[in-house]
Amino acid sequence: MLYLYDGALDVPKILKEWYEQEEGSNYGAYIPFVGTVRDEDNIEGLSFDIYEPILRSWFEAWQTRAKAKGAVIKMAHSRGDVMLHESSYIAAVFSPKRRVALEFIDEFVEDFKASAPIWKYDLKNGKRIYALERSTAIKGSGLLK
User: Fold this and answer.
1) pTM confidence score
2) Which of 37, 56, 94, 107 makes a 20 to 30 Å CA pair with 63?
3) Given CA atoms 94, 64, 78, 38 in this order, what sign does their dihedral have?
4) What are the residue ranges spanned by the domains of the chain?
5) Backbone angles phi, psi at 75, to 5 degrees
6) For the domain 2-134, what is the CATH code?
């Protein structure tokens, strides 16, 4: 389950909805990860662009991996502007066993940072500036020569 929202995420509402969706599923573990915009480099916030077809394909591959272990992964991400101390990213793993959930949330969040087609911009002085120094090139991306 991949959810995309315009603007900041309503963390309590999303986590409650996810819990309620799965509370009767007999999972022994529910491990969420919440990412928030930090106050650094004099930014006012961050802004995000998403290439949805690749993101959905990447996410479905993770769902397939999770399903093989009897688990479910959920993810929410923001499009557009998210201000300081607001959330732009939530991921959660539901699984029968805690070890599966602990391992999957770690692997999923790390792969998300390395592979998800989401571009981050700093918001400074009312301008949107590509955050090149904090960006990671997606595998296989770039110009052909």
Assistant:
1) 0.89
2) 37
3) positive
4) 2-134
5) -145, 140
6) 3.90.1170.40
